[in-house]
């Protein structure tokens, strides 16, 4: 332990922000006037800090074994300095570990498990999410088309960016897989005149969108279904499909089946846009340094991230041709910091909402988890441990005369100008 404490003292001195650590016995290490202080109540969490397992330290904070004093931005600057390795590239699995990981993915991502996982996160409390999301409650990466945009403006820019990429037209049959609180679904219907269908596994989100459809008089043209993508039945295929912030819940073992299902729901020549978080490392199944385990336990049970190359491989095997891929990683870092700052500004209200949902003790635990999750994720996207890709694909119709360009086999123009024209 003496060696660990000596190592920890040296690392605290090298941090970009002043930080102090109080040991279980009361001794204090680090800066005399800290911006961040961690007060440890047990030794195992102290060992995790000294060895760079910052996800395990986060779990100890959530469970009340470590008390935190200080702001999230300062804490994350310190956390980055305390890492001993790149968490996106510290896992190298042999063939047997890969077989076990695939078997686990198959077992975890059943219809029943996926529904429970989604409801665990998204049905936490609509009032809680409303405190720090934008007014449309768009819970995915915003698009900062210009640097002066507010969060709400950047979310609207993202919704429009997706609609432009999909070339939505009045009358298009449009499907939104994992439609959340209906931001994209309603935007597409109201601004592009599509016939829109959204699906979700969240009961809260389903009820919220149903109310918004009625309030806006969109019955008959917009519908929301409480159904798994694998069980969606339609009379005719869709012209355009979007999946935003959903495929992270699908699982590595189910990814090809996911894209095959999407392809089956899309008419020949139709377009699909898949927007989601991808892994920063080519081989890691989750973030290292204990961060992946933290997310699994407290935030997104069953979530799995794949490198964009793996996603595109599974997309191609399902018969979809990728025509455009865009990395919005820094946009998500800024989005998450906006969410984190928004939650930090609403801590008393958040504590009250969560206490009403599950009691004061459980509410405080959930709040600590989300404070760390939002700020930690912002850090992860800044550092490239994770990325955010929009992947646009077509389902070729087999007719080389289809489209404005010979051989397009779809309505996609194979130039990007149309996305950015006003």
CATH class membership of the largest domain: Alpha Beta
Rg, alpha carbons: 23 Å
| CATH superfamily caption of the largest domain | Vaccinia Virus protein VP39
The overall number of domains is 2
List the main descriptive attributes of the protein structure presented here.
Nonspecific Lipid-transfer Protein, Chain A; Rossmann fold; 422 residues; 7-stranded mixed beta sheet; transferase; alpha/beta; 11 strands; 4-stranded mixed beta sheet; 46% helix; 2 domains
Summarize the structure.
The chain folds into two domains: 2-82, Nonspecific Lipid-transfer Protein, Chain A, CATH 3.30.1050.10; 99-420, Vaccinia Virus protein VP39 (Rossmann fold), CATH 3.40.50.150. The chain contains 17 helices and eleven strands.
Topology:
Layout: H1 2-13, E1 19-22, E2 28-30, E3 36-40, H2 43-50, H3 54-62, E4 66-69, H4 72-82, H5 95-108, H6 111-122, H7 126-132, H8 151-165, E5 173-177, H9 183-192, E6 195-200, H10 203-215, E7 222-226, E8 238-244, H11 255-265, E9 266-279, H12 291-298, H13 308-317, E10 321-327, H14 329-344, H15 347-358, H16 360-383, E11 386-394, H17 417-420
Parallel strand pairs: 1-3, 5-6, 5-8, 6-7, 8-9
Antiparallel strand pairs: 1-2, 3-4, 9-11, 10-11
Helix pairs in contact: 2-3, 3-12, 3-16, 4-16, 8-9, 11-13, 14-16, 15-16
């Amino acid at each position: 332990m003496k060696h660990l404490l000596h190592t920890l003292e040296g690392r605290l001195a090298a941090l970009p922000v002043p930080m102090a650590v109080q040991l279980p016995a009361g001794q204090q290490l680090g800066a005399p006037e800290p911006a961040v202080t961690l007060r440890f109540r047990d030794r195992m969490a102290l060992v995790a800090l000294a060895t760079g397992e910052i996800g395990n330290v986060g779990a100890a904070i959530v469970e009340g074994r470590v008390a935190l004093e200080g702001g999230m931005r300062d804490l994350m600057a310190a956390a980055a300095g305390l890492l001993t390795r790149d968490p996106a590239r510290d896992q190298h699995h042999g063939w047997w570990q890969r077989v076990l990981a695939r078997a686990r993915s198959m077992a975890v991502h059943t219809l029943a498990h996926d529904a429970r996982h989604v409801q665990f996160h998204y049905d936490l409390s609509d009032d809680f999410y409303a405190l720090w999301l934008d007014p449309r409650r768009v819970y995915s990466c915003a698009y900062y088309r210009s640097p002066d945009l507010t969060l709400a403006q950047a979310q609207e820019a993202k919704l429009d960016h997706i609609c432009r990429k999909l070339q939505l037209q009045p009358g298009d049959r449009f499907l939104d897989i994992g439609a959340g609180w209906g931001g994209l679904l309603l935007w597409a219907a109201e601004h592009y005149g599509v016939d829109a269908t959204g699906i979700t596994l969240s009961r809260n989100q389903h009820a919220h969108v149903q109310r918004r459809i009625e309030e806006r008089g969109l019955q008959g043209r917009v519908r929301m279904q409480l159904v798994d993508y694998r069980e969606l039945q339609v009379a005719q295929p869709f012209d355009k499909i979007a999946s935003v912030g959903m495929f992270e819940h699908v699982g590595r073992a189910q990814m090809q089946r996911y894209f095959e299902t999407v392809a089956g729901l899309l008419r020949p020549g139709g377009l699909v846009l898949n927007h989601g978080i991808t892994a920063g490392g080519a081989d890691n199944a989750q973030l290292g340094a204990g961060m992946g385990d933290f997310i699994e336990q407290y935030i997104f049970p069953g979530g799995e991230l794949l490198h964009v190359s793996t996603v595109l491989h599974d997309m191609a095997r399902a018969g979809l041709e990728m025509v455009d891929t865009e990395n919005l990683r820094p946009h998500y870092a800024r989005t998450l910091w906006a969410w984190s700052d928004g939650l930090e500004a609403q801590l008393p209200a958040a504590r009250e909402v969560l206490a009403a949902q599950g009691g004061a003790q459980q509410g405080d635990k959930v709040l600590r988890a989300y404070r760390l999750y939002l700020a930690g994720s912002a850090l992860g996207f800044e550092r490239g441990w994770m990325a955010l890709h929009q992947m646009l694909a077509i389902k070729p119709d087999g007719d080389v005369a289809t489209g404005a360009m010979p051989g397009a086999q779809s309505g996609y123009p194979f130039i990007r100008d149309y996305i950015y024209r006003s």
